[in-house]
Amino acid sequence: MTNDSSIAQIAAILREEADRLGPGARLPSSREIMRRHNVSPVTVSRAIGQLAAEGRVVTRPGSGAFVTQRTGHAQDAPDLSWQTVALGDRVVDEGPVSVLLGAAPEGVVPLTGGYLRPGLRPDRQLAAAAARAVRRPDAWAMPPLTGLRELRRWFATQAGSDVTEADALVVSGGQAALTHAFRALAAPGTPILVETPTYPGALAAARAAGLRATAVPMDRDGVRPELLAEAFAVTGARVFFCQPTLHNPTGATLPPERREQVLEVARAAGAFVVEDDYARYLTAQPPASLASMDRHGTVVHIVSLTKILSPSMRVAAVIARGPAAHRLRASQLVESFFVARPLQETALEFVGSPAWRRHLTAVHGEIATRRDALAAALAELLPEAEPHLLPAGGMHLWVRLPAEVDETALVEAARRNGVLVSPGRLYYASEPPGPRIRLTHMAAAHLAELREGVRRLAEALAITGK
Fold first, then answer.
1. What separation in angstroms does the CA of 426 have from each of 41, 153, 431, 459?
2. Cα(106)–Cα(103) distance, rounded to whole angstroms?
């Protein structure tokens, strides 16, 4: 298995050899390094790449890697410590987001991630849609600042009820939509209510906007309206962020009557509800959105094409009404002007083609198969881990571990044993109630690898429990 420690070890050996050989000398060939140290080609390639990034070697295709001329001395290195004082308190913490976006090394089973794996992405169909899109006469012209009219109309139709294209703003993905919404709806230093647990990217965006996240408890049906009302009264918050459909990470979906209650509570508090409808296309029968039930401008609705299509399809919509809509448009305009027209045209081409429905059908079938396979593997190989519920779609299972399990130690032991899982602590704005992990079933290459990942996780739990 290729892992970070073996790469670091080979890089250290080659670093010493480069210093011994001196500038201009050629390092041993990759084949020779593999033979000497019994490592894989990928390990050697990454180790040499690390030295190249440090400026210690330069690679010449067909010739090998050569030691570079080292200029200057350690004492000549620039001193950048002054920036610490100038920057002040750290505002943006990218840690949780970078953990979610990290790719699994070769040989490691990914039970993490939030996007479709390559074999499930409609790459060929997207390429065809992009080819058609860029042939349009105005494909490279500046788009309307709020987004292509036809695309905004499509997003409005998806939201339902009397939502119109005038209510929709096209933005660069769901994460950007959250950033715009939090900055537009709440002043720095004010509280924002969030479900607990909740999506770590939302917590990071809230902190970056200078907001204080306050947790509101959930049950198997989602956020509890009576506790939401209490949280509004205690904190004075004017924004509630939620994922009412296939909540990340628990998989809970708010039933219709509770959706009405949440809107009533928010209206009584004079507050906004930011509805992150990220999983609308990850279930065969999505419920009516909160936006479709809203008549008072309470809901700011976010929906994205990224999860269902590709990480690079950074196209989403924010739907809002009244002064809030104006602030959101102003935020988009000041920060990035608009979303690139070719990307919008490609999205419009794809969702308007027969490939869209075929893709949805294929993904929904794969989700059900993989969800059931993951649940079955847990029941067989890791019965101590209890899924919160079996969701009607989405990509994850939220798993409760025995109270005595050290969550941090388990996640690290699992990584060393060749499987990546998401630690539960990332999903809490306050103290976690106990050890939890989120397991993703859509990133593994196939069902056998999914089961192998659970087997490795079970081994890691057995190790940490000793």
1. 34, 36, 10, 23
2. 9
Helices (H), 172-293: 173-185, 200-208, 225-235, 256-269
Instruction: Residue count of the chain, please give it.
Output: 466
Residue 147 pLDDT more than 80?
Answer: yes
pLDDT tens track for 407-429: 999 999 999 999 999 999 999 98
pTM of the model: 0.80
> DSSP code of 26?
B
| Residue 386 bridge partners (DSSP) | 400
Structural element, H or E, at residue 18: helix 4-21
Q: Which two tokens stand for residue 442?
A: 């859509």
Residue 194 has pLDDT above 90, yes or no: yes
Structural element, H or E, at residue 242 = strand 239-242
Name residues whose C-beta falls within 8 Å of residue 162's C-beta, 6 or more positions apart in sequence. none
Percent of the chain scoring above 90 in pLDDT: 69
DSSP three-state, residue 435: coil
- Kindly report the number of other CB atoms within 10 A of residue 124's CB atom: 9
For the four alpha carbons of 333, 323, 325 and 262, in that order, the dihedral sign comes to positive
Residue 402 near residue 384, CB atoms below 8 Å: yes
